[in-house]
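Summary for the steering committee. The consortium agreed at its last meeting that each partner would contribute one worked example illustrating the joint modelling workflow. Our contribution is presented below. We chose a case with several input lines so that the handling of multiple components could be demonstrated. No manual editing was applied between input and output; the record is shown as generated.
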Amino acid sequence: MAHTALICWTSLLTLLPAPALRAQAPVDTALARYIAGIKAIDSHAHPMLPIPAGAPPDTDYDALPLDGIPAFPLPYRLRPENPEWRAAQHALYGVRLTDTGAAYRDALRGAVRAVRQREGPRFPEWVLDQIGTEVMLANRITLGPGLAPPRFRWVAFVDALMFPLDTRAEAARTPDTRALYPKEAALLRRYVHELGLTTVPRTLDAYVRAVVTPTLERERRGGAVSVKFEAAYLRPLDFDDPDAAAAQRVYARYAAGGTPTHAEYKVLEDYLFRMIARGAGRLGMAVQIHTTEGFGGFYATHGSAPHLLEPAFDDPTLRGTTFIIIHGGWPLLGETQSLLSKPNVYTDISAMALFVEPTEVARVLRQWLGEWPEKVMFGTDAFDGGPEQGWAEAAWLGTTSARRALAIALTGMMRDGEIDRARAEQLARMVMRENAITAYHLERR
Ligand SMILES: [Zn+2]
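What follows is the complete predicted structure of the assembly.
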């Protein structure tokens, strides 16, 4: 029987035309066209400054650039051998898919240089025009020429404000944290200097008054619509609600020198996390929090589980702050979904859209949209991955993948009679742009 079945199957395969061999998720063509036409708002990305050749490099693209940590493996879809990167280079720069080896690399370098020269400071906006994105939220230390409103909106980093004391003992935990903590220390020094101070004050209340609050206000004045915590790269997301007096004691003891114990530092960080989140909310900024499985060879996945944030989300004094579980908490999607029941908690599919196949993202979207359709946002996490995987290619891949995932999810919901076409189009607009307008208090245009 088995033998016969095998013969039947193989002969059937040879009879099928080649394209049919690739299983395609069913997509409603008209709906896919509708989704492709929606002007998107990308909830989370890392665009680079359009620096002219020979000028100093862009160093403000991330508070925690990962090039300083030991090499670590990437999910398949992010690796250069994934042919989808070639598709991105072809779509954006017209690089031929048939070139290989040195000819391909030369063609790519030349094509990218030509477009960058032609567009000059308009290059980042040109990228958004190619992928149908109206607004990209730029997660950077600063924006700059070429990355400006209204097409780019700022998401500023705030982790550094949680670490005003000596972090050497915290940094010692892993080879990754050894490289990352000093970056936060340097960024805090920069924040302090930008306020005209030379050092942090001696008491916690004075630190909050003279450094934390003015830094958040400076970020808001600079156009920030959200702040972002990358804390999961540094410590678990279990932010408790410590007694203010305990935090004040730790601060006062070490402000002038010395290294707090891990338990002491956690009290202070937890206190400051809530102060920062509360302050951001008061100023009308959302709070993005990195939650996913990576990156880094020593990254603590259990410490980035979305459920760890529940006590902060349930803090009544933080209900005026909108939180975004960025990267969807992948792969802990159920944890993310359960937290979307909080009135001030949203999520986005940034990063997921890049390193998870669209069919899988479609399953997630369908699961979330059935329950919390007003809480789910499109995002890419487009970042610069070197000459063959620039932020533009990542934005193209993340955006086309996300639109495809959304089309698969909504087609399935229509075919199963859960929604009609009008509702499918409405859900598509909500995910691709309208939920972000609400979450980040953007102007409606
Ligand atoms: Zn990111």
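Residues 44, 46, 139, 381 surround zinc ion (CB under 6 Å). Residues 1-22 have pLDDT under 50 and may be disordered.
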